[in-house]
Amino acid sequence: MDQSDPPAPPQAGTRHDTLLHSNEPPDSSEIPFIQSTSSRIDARLAILDEEIARLKQLAAERAVLVSYGAQSKAALSPMRRMPTELLIEIFVLTVPSFKSDGLWACTHSMRVSPWVLTRVCSRWRAVAISTPALW
User: Fold this and answer.
1) Which residues pair with 109 in a beta bridge?
2) Is the peptide bond before 114 cis (omega within 30 degrees of 0)?
3) Which residues, 6+ apart, have CB-to-CB distance to 98 below 8 Å?
4) Residues 91 and 97 sit within 8 Å (Cβ to Cβ)
5) Within a 10 A sphere around the Cβ of 128, how many other Cβ atoms?
6) pLDDT tens digits for range 51-106
7) Which of 12, 72, 118, 122 has its Cβ near the most Cβ atoms within 10 Å?
8) DSSP state at residue 135
9) Are 30 and 15 within 8 A, CB to CB?
């Protein structure tokens, strides 16, 4: 058996199992076996810890690549290439309509247009702020 192989747990009813599940002290003849088993367990744990650390590195690398991939795909979004003039036309269509008395049915809630348009991204904010028809 290789030193890096983990020892199998003792079978129920064996002397080793009894020692693990009681407060009985081992006989002097059992101590070398228990020490050897503990050493093999420690060696296997060290190997597993190294593998876990490597997996954590891979997970971190994956997270970076997922984020980079999403950003790359977002850079190709058709919305980024939409002409400002078309964006303005769409924005104007979102403005609340006039009331029958000619006053704006206005609200100062950040959840309605044009306010909400300023919170999507920096480009939309700049376009919305620079479009007098929205205000």
Assistant:
1) none
2) yes
3) 104, 105
4) no
5) 22
6) 999 999 999 999 999 999 999 999 999 989 999 999 999 999 988 765 555 555 55
7) 118
8) -
9) yes
